[in-house]
């Protein structure tokens, strides 16, 4: 039985188009260039931020975030950033009596922006608020602390094998790999990802059916 569903954020609930476009504009490179570098780190299975480090090897990501905020060019999310299946799927899960938690590698500011969207979720929290980020085991220990049920009854949903599926499985959670965004599509048919994921899905609309099984 799945009693709690925990969902990643970037390319699970929200499109990352605005995120990467804002970084390209801030760094003074074409959006196409940064997009191509994102593709390179996807294929290599590397950390997302390595795309920025390719452009600025000595970059301090936290300092750049602060500078963007100070310049009035900080993070932003609104309804247009959500995938179309998000609200219906989350609402259906809650209607089925499932606890819904949103937890991903985002900043405190992103957490505030997401909560302002009033998603049909019981809790929205980010790694910036927890002080620990995926794929660290401590992140998934926090997930279990807010899940309200054992790992075997908690399903973690995400697109990124290295950040979502493998560490969630290592922590004992059930896992669903979402074919969405560059990481989700590129790694969808990888044997290791298939083996680590209890379910492979193409849409969040499949989740209510999974929890009813």
Mean pLDDT reading: 96
Q: How widely separated are the two ends?
A: 8 Å
Number of strands: 6
Classify the secondary structure makeup into a structural class: alpha/beta
Q: Would you kindly provide a written description of the structure presented here, covering whatever features stand out?
A:
- This protein is an alpha/beta fold.
- The chain is 48% helix and 13% strand.
- It has helices at 17-27, 31-44, 50-55, 61-70, 86-95, 108-116, 127-130, 137-147, 161-170, 181-186, 191-196, 207-212; strands at 4-7, 99-104, 123-126, 154-158, 174-178, 199-201.
- Strands 3-2-1-4-5-6 form a 6-stranded parallel β-sheet, sandwiched between helices.
- The longest helix has 14 residues, at 31-44.
- The protein is globular.
Task: Quickly describe the structure.
This protein is of the alpha/beta class and 213 residues long. It is 48% helix and 13% strand.
Write the layout of secondary structure elements.
Elements (H helix, E strand, L loop, with lengths): L3 E4 L9 H11 L3 H14 L5 H6 L5 H10 L15 H10 L3 E6 L3 H9 L6 E4 H4 L6 H11 L6 E5 L2 H10 L3 E5 L2 H6 L4 H6 L2 E3 L5 H6 L1
Parallel strand pairs: 1-2, 1-4, 2-3, 4-5, 5-6
Give keywords.
globular, alpha/beta, six-stranded parallel beta sheet, 213 residues, 12 helices
């Amino acid at each position: 039985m799945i009693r709690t569903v925990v969902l990643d954020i970037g390319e699970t609930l929200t499109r990352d188009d605005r995120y990467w476009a804002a970084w390209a504009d801030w760094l003074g490179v074409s959006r196409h260039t940064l997009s191509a570098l994102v593709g390179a780190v996807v294929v290599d299975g590397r950390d997302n931020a390595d795309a920025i480090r390719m452009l600025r090897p000595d970059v301090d990501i936290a300092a750049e975030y602060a500078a963007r905020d100070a310049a009035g060019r900080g993070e932003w999310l609104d309804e247009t950033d959500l995938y179309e299946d998000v609200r219906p799927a989350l609402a259906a899960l809650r209607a089925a009596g499932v606890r819904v938690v949103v937890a991903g590698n985002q900043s405190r500011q992103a957490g505030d922006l997401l909560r302002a969207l009033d998603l049909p979720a019981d809790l929205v929290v980010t790694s910036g608020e927890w002080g620990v980020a995926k794929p660290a085991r401590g992140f998934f220990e926090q997930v279990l602390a807010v899940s309200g049920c054992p790992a075997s009854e908690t399903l973690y949903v995400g697109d990124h094998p290295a950040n979502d599926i493998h560490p969630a499985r290592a922590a004992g959670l059930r896992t669903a790999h979402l074919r969405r965004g560059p990481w989700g599509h590129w790694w969808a048919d990888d044997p290791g990802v298939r083996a680590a994921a209890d379910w492979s899905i193409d849409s969040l609309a499949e989740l209510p059916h999974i929890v009813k099984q």
